[in-house]
Design a protein that fits this description.
The chain is an alpha/beta fold and about 500 residues long. The chain has 2 domains: about 1-250 and about 455-480, Aldehyde Dehydrogenase, Chain A, domain 1; about 250-440, Aldehyde Dehydrogenase, Chain A, domain 2. Helices cover about 40% and strands about 20% of the residues. It comes from Roseicitreum antarcticum.
């Protein structure tokens, strides 16, 4: 049995708490490794070492720090296959999807190569006689990131890239369900030239998260995961005076207007609803066709597409559309919610229950499900299922469809499929959701824009990656300087306008 480690001061370090979690291969259901769960003492020691390493890293000029990121990009590309295999083995997603996970993280590292430009301050020459005003963006010190299982490469990269590029030291607490890739990323950063101690990877569970919240040296926390934990970390972190951004769960609606291309909409829904077994925070989990005719046409096109989906292990390569879910508990939860949907009166038009794969009977596979006639009072509508289950809510009008998306407590992503520019514009302007797709089902913004949900999908005021990340991981210092020329005046007792 492989025993995983922490990554402290540039080396693998064994856990000393005596507590471990099992790491599964979701395709086979077998335990493939165990990961140490750090104690508060281990976490605090890692933070202390990071704090000692940070000033020299902050004093390294931004271009040199950016060169580390440049080398890191090359190494990520070099090891893409190896990383993807490790990722799929622990997460279960297909290999092409694992490469997408790494790629979308790598693109944020590419963006970070622009740190010297992004960190430039503002300057006002001659704000008053002999007076100049300028601002600097300075690192916070030690920042921490707490990440979920579903993007084991992308989300740690979204966090560590900007934090490190800004001159911070960074403590990453990855998901205990997919810890191997974050450790591999740390190895690659060392090879790219990152000084020891500047990045620490501490594996753990609630105990290490609480230790991060309680640690006075940690200045900022970036969290991604489920909403109850996001809210917990946001409230406790803010109460402790830290800078905190927390991104939570989702229930993403896709509205299909009567004028939409139905084949395009059906293809988009199948990819966005069932890709990665529905374990994406930007997955579409609710289809909202407008009008009965649209709904009937859509369901007719969806059923054969969903029945054709190939579910299997990542080792089957390109021959698989999606893999298992991450854990037996996730599978049980999905199955419970499917039963509740049936009991509460939704119509299960594609029934994936009882799905079994020969040779992988103990894997955490879930067959694809499609519900029709779902209503907003049902649990399958209210809750995030995070599995291959698509719910269809029939809306009588565009306004009714829009209201559904607006009234839902989550506001991560949403999409509209239409040929009408006016409807699309109206939707983008009015919907209270953070990321909007127009004929694009999964509108994940690229690295140089920012990513963040609204309502219960995001707590805090700055988004992830893009320019916001450089604001989140730095603080602004504004300097007003005067170099007296000529006669010196006496002291000033009034708060003066600059004249
Ligand atoms: P999770 O909330 O269970 O875990 C996330 C992190 O929090 C992990 O590192 C975990 O160890 C830690 N954690 C878990 N329980 C904790 C507790 N009681 N106290 C302190 N820390 C705790 O989430 P998950 O199951 O790993 O990920 C799936 C969730 O993440 C979904 O809800 C999904 O929508 C969401 N997600 C959101 C985004 C986004 O950007 N909004 C992106 C990806 C995933």
């Amino acid at each position: 049995m492989q025993e995983l480690t922490h990554w402290i001061n540039g080396a693998h370090v064994k856990g000393t708490s005596g507590r471990f979690a099992d790491v599964f291969n979701p395709a086979t259901g077998e335990v493939q490794a165990r990961v140490p769960l750090a104690s508060a003492e281990e976490l605090n020691a890692a933070v202390q070492a990071a704090s000692a390493a940070q000033p020299a890293w902050a004093a390294t000029n931004p271009q040199r720090r950016a060169r580390v990121m440049m080398a890191f990009v090359q190494l990520l590309n070099r090891d893409m296959d190896k990383l993807a295999e490790a990722l799929s083995r622990e997460h279960g997603k297909t290999l092409p999807d694992a490469k997408g996970d790494i790629q979308r993280g790598l693109e944020v590292i590419e963006y970070c190569i622009g740190a010297p430009q992004l960190l430039k301050g503002e300057f006002t020459d001659g704000a008053g006689p002999g007076i100049d005003l300028y601002s600097m963006r300075q690192p916070l010190g030690v920042a921490a990131g707490i990440t979920p299982f579903n993007f084991p490469a992308m989300i740690p990269l979204w966090k560590m890239g900007p934090a490190l590029s800004c001159g911070n030291a960074f403590i990453l607490k990855p998901s205990e369900r997919a810890p191997s890739v974050p450790l591999m990323l740390a190895e690659l950063l060392k090879e790219a030239g990152l000084p020891d101690g500047v990045l620490q990877v501490i594996n753990g569970d609630k105990e290490s998260v609480d230790a991060i919240l309680d640690n006075e040296t940690v200045q900022a926390i970036g969290f991604v995961g489920s909403t109850p934990i996001a809210h917990y970390i946001y409230s406790r972190g803010c109460a402790a005076g830290k800078r905190v951004q927390c991104f939570g769960g989702a229930k993403n609606h896709m509205i299909i207007m009567p004028d939409a291309d139905m084949d395009q909409a059906a293809d988009a829904l199948v990819g966005a609803g069932y890709g990665a077994a529905g374990e994406r925070c930007m997955a579409i989990s609710v289809a909202v066709p407008v009008g009965e005719k649209t709904a009937d046409a859509l369901i007719e096109k969806l059923i054969p597409r969903i029945e054709k989906l190939k579910v299997g292990p990542y080792t089957a390569g390109n021959d698989v559309d999606y893999g298992p879910v991450v854990a037996q508990a996730a599978k049980d939860n999905i199955e419970r919610l499917v039963e509740s949907g049936i009991e509460q009166g939704a119509k299960l038009v594609v029934d994936g229950r009882g799905f079994k794969l020969q040779g992988y009977e103990n894997g955490f596979f879930v067959g694809p499900h499609l519900f029709d006639h779902v209503t907003p009072d049902m649990d399958i509508y209210k809750k995030e299922i995070f599995g291959p289950v698509l719910s269809t809510v029939r809306a009588g009008s565009y306004e009714e469809a829009l209201k559904l998306a607006m009234d839902h407590e989550y506001g991560n992503g949403t999409a509209i499929f239409t040929r009408d520019g006016d409807t699309a514009r109206d939707f983008a302007a009015r919907v209270n959701v953070g990321m909007v797709g127009i004929n694009v089902p999964i509108p994940v913004p690229l690295a140089y824009h920012t990513f963040g949900g609204w309502k219960k999908s995001g707590f805090g005021d700055l988004n992830q990656h893009g320019p916001d990340a450089f604001r989140f991981y730095t603080r602004t210092k504004t300097v007003t300087s005067r170099w007296p020329s000529g006669l010196k005046e006496g002291g000033e007792f009034h708060f003066k306008a600059m004249d």
